[in-house]
Every structure is written in structure tokens, then in C-alpha cells.
Amino acid sequence: MYKFHKVKIKNIQQETNDAVIWTLDVPEYYKGTFIWHAGQHLTFKKMIDGEEIRRSYSILSATKSDEIKILIKKIVDGKFSQAAQSEYEIGQTIEVMPPTGHFSLSSQNDKTYAFFAAGSGITPIMSMIYEVLYNSNSQINLYYGNSTVESTLLKRQLTDLKDEFQQRLSISYFLSQEPIDIALFSGRIDKDKVNKIFDKELKNLDVVGYYLCGPGGMIDEVSKVLMENNVSSKIIHSEQFLSEGQVITDKQKTAKVDSGVMVTIDGVTSHYEIKEGEEKTLLDAALDAKIKMPYSCKAGVCATCRCKLREGQVEMINNYSLEDWELEKGYILSCQSIPKTKKISIDYDC
Ligand code: FES
Question: Model's pTM, two decimal places?
Fold first, then answer.
């Protein structure tokens, strides 16, 4: 499951000045492996200047679509995203891991779904919108922030959906760097705006799930307002959007004890060690021991490295992706975990 596969780029389409959409040509014999839930992402790898770079991009296609599309926005100093805009051509091969990620949605009938997205955060949300519109009769309220109209990603696709599903899809656009007459929609999505939206619209609806994707600040503010308005945290789901290569912590990741780690992955169990004082997470030490564990962001955001802690204890430095129920069931992020006990056992197969 965690292997990389060679896949051709079937089409490259310019979405905005600094973003492209790739359509992938998944060979027939991989199609069973490349099935995804709305909201999941793909991890790509590329060698740049002798260094292996991995990056995750959310799938924006509908789950039953024949085509897998991803959107890559150019980031200043982002090695992969810059290469994606100019170096790759149609027909070229790229290495990609099958879909992963737990920020996903399966639609129910007769409900309302509320989505908050900012910038590139629209990509997993787009797949979720298709999921709800195509596979249920439920309603959608989308609140979507960008800096300008021109930089608004997937605007045409959203407009087409709005035309097709006028009664079921409501979209509110927010612009932070372009004047709008209506004050509520002028500026970024913040606490004050979410309070007003909740009061005016959401509190009267039977919302079965809130799905938030964007920068950490937006997610924190929206979640806080929802919880202050007695929305259960169980129905608030989020995925933080992290710029390519961005590291969001400088916290220490020093191992507290000598620890022997057993890891099971794709049915194979391996053993490796971490010495007290080493500046290594469970993932770092496994990669040093040449054990292939899945990862992408190494920042606690994408959850590609999510596994179950079967034995022992760890300290997680950051967690921007696992929800409370996953922590209660013993799931951890190996890229953020340092051992606290002499024996650790982790499992990727559950
Ligand atoms: S690799 Fe992304 S959360 Fe661990």
C-alpha cells in the first residue's frame, strides 16, 4: 500500500498565474490501488539536487471520476511546486504513493455540510463537495476565502457546480485584498465573521459535519467559534494547509531513553533502535535504519505517517492532523513521536 508507483501526467492545465492542475494517467492495473475517499491526498517524490523531496497534494476529483486531478500552487522557495509549474510535461512519469489521509467524508442524505476553506485548502474540500452533491441529496454551505478574484482557485468549477445544483449548494466568497461592498465578505475569514455566519445561517441548520481546510490561524478561529456555540468537536474536522517545506515547530525532539522499536508495515515486522539523547523521531530513526516507512510533510500535518502504538509510550511533539478519537484509539504520528519507554511497538497495518 505504501509503495510508490510510476504514473504518467496525462494533462497539465494552468489554473491561475501560479497554480497548475495535473491530471494523472493511472494505468488500468493500478486502478484498484488508486481508489480514494473524498478529501484524501497523494504523496509524490522527486530527487532534487541529490535530495529526495516528498510532497502531498489533495485529490480534487469526484471519487467515482475516471480521472485523478491534483492542484499544485507555486510557493516561493518550494522546490517541488516550482518544478511542477515549469519542468514537467504531459506524458512525463512521476512517482506517486496511493491515496492516504484521514481528512475525508462519506456523505449522508437529508443533512447539511458546512465547509470553510482558504486558498489551496479548497482542494480536498472540492472532492468532498462532489461527494455530497453526486452521492446524496444533502445541502452544502461553502465559505471560501482568497486574496483576490483572480487568485481564487477552482472558481470556474465551483460556478459550474452552482449552476447545476442551485438549490443545494450555497457559496460565500471572502476576499482579503480586493474591495467588496458587503462588509461581511471583505477580509479574511476570522472569528467575528464566523460568529455572524453562525448566527445568521448555520445555527438554524442540521449540520452533520463541519470541514475546515486552510492555514492554522483560520482553522483555530473557526473551530473556536463553533465550539463556543456548542457545536460538538466530534463533528468538526480539519486539515491544516502547510506551505511546501514549511516547518511549524522548533520544539526539541530528543529521545528520553534508549528504546527498541518494532514496526509492522505491509505484514512485515522490523526492529530498530533509538539511543537516549538522539535528536530523532520514530520516523527519522527508521529511515536511518533503511526501513521504508510512509511519510510526506514530516511536520505533523498530512498524517501520511499515522500508525497505531501497540506497546510503550511516546511523546508527540506536534499534532495538526489526528482527531481526539484517533488519539484515544492509540494512533500516533511517527514523524512527531519520540520514545518515552524502552520498548515501543507500532503498526501501520490497522
Ligand atoms: S509525515 Fe506528515 S504528519 Fe507525519
Answer: 0.87
